[in-house]
Design goal:
The protein is an alpha/beta fold. The chain contains 10 helices and 8 strands. It has a single domain, classed as P-loop containing nucleotide triphosphate hydrolases (Rossmann fold), CATH 3.40.50.300. Helix 2 packs across helix 10 (about 220-235), helix 3 crosses helix 4 (about 65-75) and helix 7 crosses helix 8. The protein binds adenosine monophosphate.
Length: about 240
Amino acid sequence: MVGITLAREPDATDTKEIAKPLAVILLGPPGSGKGTHAGPLSKYLTVPHISTGDLFRGNIREQTPLGLLAKTYIDKGNLVPDELVLDMFFDRVSKTDCKNGYILDGFPRTIPQAEALDLYLHTRNQTVALYFTLTDEEIIERITGRIACKVCGRPYHKKFAPPQNEMLCECGGSLYQRDDDRVEIVCKRLDIYRKQTQPLIEYYSNKINVLKEINSSNGKEQVLQDVLSVLSTTHLQYSKSY
Ligand code: AMP
């Protein structure tokens, strides 16, 4: 694992501070690497990775009423209405595995969602928002090349992480492209991102020492290093087994 040095190593007297859970919010356009970095970060900080997109896809696979309704928005590249997202989200973060914090990927996506999250976190969590940036050309190249295994969910990329056997996963499962990763839908998602999600950057930049910008154009390893380095130099205290 990437070696980092914390600004100050926690000691026994820090118990109260460390006990406060950490909420890491991943912000940035679709394809900016939120999902890619959420996994390693979640392992590193030993807190769950919560992706509202994954929660919806799980509901769609299981054909729940929520999944069937959400699909009508997702397939068109639209955002799912706030009330549906909020119920599902708060149900997830109330689970016991979230007691030490979480990595939020794809939530919040609108100002009302951010306000609802603020009310919920209030004095409960320490918060940091990581803002992943990259150009529109990079975004389109990254998203339209994404494929994943239908069976085990393993992600690949046609150009950057191609499967050994074209359209087949190592587990033997067939690979597919998400309906909403097609180029025409990606352009719509980017448009919606700019209108509804980009205002969150200003929202979090108005909070003291919360928003941290990460250049996502750098390679995967470098970006992870940058994220860990940002976390280590903030005021945050977290209980990671280094
Ligand atoms: P993602 O996997 O995060 O790209 O999400 C896939 C799709 O799920 C999005 O394009 C939205 O349609 C929907 N979705 C996920 N999270 C949210 C959210 N916080 N608010 C509204 N819609 C969401």
